[in-house]
Design brief:
The protein has ten helices and 19 strands. By secondary structure, it is an alpha/beta fold. It folds into two domains: 166 residues, Glucose Oxidase, domain 1; 200 residues, Rossmann fold (3-Layer(aba) Sandwich). The strands form three sheets. The chain has a ten-stranded mixed beta sheet with strand order 10-12-11-13-14-19-18-17-15-16, with helices on both faces. A seven-stranded mixed β-barrel has the order 1-2-8-6-4-3-9. Strand 3, helix 1 and strand 4 form a beta-alpha-beta unit. Helix 8 packs across helix 9. The longest helix is centred in the last third of the chain and has 12 residues.
Length: 377
């Protein structure tokens, strides 16, 4: 039985199956692709603001979320948000087992509930996230809806079942255009030693920071910038960012990648950028059953047998890029899917995971240094 101030909430799959819980955050109804992530509760704020989650209702497998609260919207000396991956929440809806109402952290200025309220994002708690995750792992990601109602309302299950049948796959939209910068942005260290143009398909703030902290000036450009417009900045290298959606729909970025490859421009890609480079090389993409989302994904270099524990967030993968002169240099241990590609003779490589999110003894931050070496700075 609901208490007086509690709001009923429903998470429903497109086939009509549903889970009941308690709402938090905004009182509203949203639609999207229901996915799960194994990132811990310590990655909550980064997950919420990651542009790669655009169009998705995200299920956290970690049981308690929000216990360290939400920090302020502070920026570092370069003008980049210090604690978030973008300037707003990007997930469509948030699903947790328990939303902590009394966080404890010296940098916390608000609760998770308050954060979602401010950003007009609905959440649902006291729901069996283990059962949801089991469905997604066994059957694959699902389309569905998340509805948070007013306290006095009762969910009309039959109406919701009729409504959820019409939910469209967000991957059919050009999601990168919804999260990309609308104007050129420049982030510059005091004494830059090089210049990189980033094709922003939904770039994460920590990627920007990793370049600037290495004394590289960053010029972030919209998703549809042409090859000519990019090269007009005379960059030492070009970076193709992470982002949401189906890589095959991003024809402009694929065309740019093809020209970068043909002209041997030093190029690096992360996540969606890995897929765009592969497609530019003549490869193909396919959708994973339930994707790779979490902070504990192991990849291996098949030649050296060295492993890395990585952070990942993608629903698509690539193959057949060898025809364009690339080799696979990193592989996912769980399903043997591609985790990195590198050209045989040109200064171009990419990884499917997020090295900017992997500090520690098994980190892969060296990849940014590798790219700088490729630029011969």
């Amino acid at each position: 039985m609901l208490y007086k101030k509690e709001r009923p909430a429903i998470l429903m799959f497109k086939d009509g199956r549903y889970f009941e819980g308690i709402g938090f955050g905004a009182t509203k109804k949203v639609y999207g692709e229901i996915v799960f992530t194994t990132i811990t509760g310590a990655g909550c704020n980064e997950t919420l603001t990651d542009p790669s989650y655009k169009g998705q209702i995200v299920v956290m497998t970690h049981p308690l979320v929000g216990n360290y609260g939400v920090p302020a919207w502070e920026k570092d000396p370069y003008g980049i948000h210090k604690y978030f991956e973008s300037d707003s929440i990007k997930v469509s809806g948030f699903v947790v087992n328990e939303c902590c109402k009394n966080p404890s952290h010296y940098e916390s200025v608000k609760t998770l509930n308050e954060f979602l309220l401010e950003e007009n994002i609905p959440g649902i708690e006291w729901i069996d996230t283990r059962a949801i995750t089991k469905v997604l792992r066994e059957e694959g990601v699902q389309l569905g809806l998340l509805a948070v109602l007013n306290p006095e309302e009762s969910p009309n299950i039959e109406e919701l079942r009729a409504e959820v049948k019409n939910v469209e796959d967000p991957n059919l939209r050009h999601l990168a255009s919804e999260v990309s910068t609308k104007e050129v942005k420049i982030f510059s260290p005091s004494k830059p030693r090089g210049k990189v143009v980033i094709i922003d398909l939904g770039v994460k703030n920590n990627i920007l920071r990793n370049f600037v902290e290495r004394d590289i000036e960053v010029i972030s450009v919209p998703y549809n910038f042409s090859y000519g417009d990019i090269m007009a900045y005379k960059p030492d290298g070009v970076f193709i960012s992470n982002g949401p959606g189906d890589p095959a729909t991003y024809k402009s970025a694929i065309s740019v990648a093809r020209k970068l490859i043909n002209n041997s421009i030093p190029t690096m890609g992360i996540c969606l950028g890995n897929q765009i480079i592969a497609l530019g090389a003549g490869g193909s993409s396919y959708k994973l059953k339930y994707g790779h989302r979490g902070g504990n994904k192991t990849v291996i270099n098949p030649k050296t047998k060295q492993c890395y524990i990585t952070s990942q967030n993608h629903g698509f993968c690539v193959k057949d890029f060898e025809r364009g002169g690339f080799n696979e240099f990193l592989t996912n241990i769980d399903d043997n899917s591609n985790e990195g590609l590198i050209h045989d003779s040109k200064p171009i490589f990419a990884v499917q995971f997020h090295p900017e999110a992997s500090p520690g003894p098994l980190d892969s931050l060296y990849l940014f240094d590798k790219f700088i070496e490729f630029m011969e700075l």
